[in-house]
Amino acid sequence: xxxxxxxxxxxxxxxxxxxxxxxxxxxxxxxxxxxxxxxxxxxxxxxxxxxxxxxxxxxxxxxxxxxxxxxxxxxxxxxxxxxxxxxxxxxxxxxxxxxxxxxxxxxxxxxxxxxxxxxxxxxxxxxxxxxxxxx
Length: 135
Prior knowledge:
single chain, mainly alpha, two-stranded antiparallel ribbon
């Protein structure tokens, strides 16, 4: 296990800010329980400091943001796990990753069509009751 100081330098000498789990939870809107769960199931690989506390780097936050977007679009955890298994395999898995994301995009687009239809039905009822469907 690598010991982490309060800051790390990148290859170009830029210093990255390290965050603890409570800071990341507050910044992302996820609970500490969810962050620990994502780590436990392999979606995150979080480093520890000399005291054993989790430390999060900017690349961890980018991954958390992408996981959050996938979850917001109802991608199942198992598919997200599969996606990151493919990421770990390196560039050779890019075609399979692309295919997985294209399939998910199609599902999201179908969901948007369904939601738009539902919104139109709600707007019709609002107009029926004398309101305008616009804010």
